[in-house]
Amino acid sequence: MKVSDILRVKGGTLYTVDAQEPLSLAVQTMAQKDIGSLVVMEHGDVVGMLTFREVIQWVVKNQGSTGTTIVRTAMDDAPLTCTPETDLDEVRRMMLERHARYMPVMSQRMLMGVVSFYDVAKAVVDSQNFENKMLKAYIKDWPSAQEANATDGAPVSK
Q1: pLDDT tens digits, 133-153
Q2: 155 belongs to a structural domain
Q3: CATH at 67
Q4: DSSP state string for 88-120
């Protein structure tokens, strides 16, 4: 499975913020949209990521206030990125190694989307569920969960 498969299911909604925008407005946007990250843009280029992790670290560092801070000051200026063709196993490995919850998807210099750890986990679970259904369908006379519980493991006669 590739990142492009996740983006196809997820849709094309992207949330971005300008690097010079006040951090307080970015936080307000994240709260209003119920999102955990914003891709930081400057002159049409991706220059960083702002996630709730960076926001919390900044607020704690500054005694509970964003003050007049701009996004550039608090953002991660070296976020992990991937391409639409990146294999999902590679994305999982990268996210786990860096404890990253969000990853911009880039094609050349163009932002294609963002995948979250949730998106990756959901894709893996959905894929495993599909595979499980296919395997059960392949095996003839597979007992349903109800039949298996009713017989407590004894063979079901039909």
Answers
A1: 777 777 766 666 676 666 555
A2: no
A3: 3.10.580.10
A4: HHHHHHHHHHHT-SEEEEEETTEEEEEEEHHHH
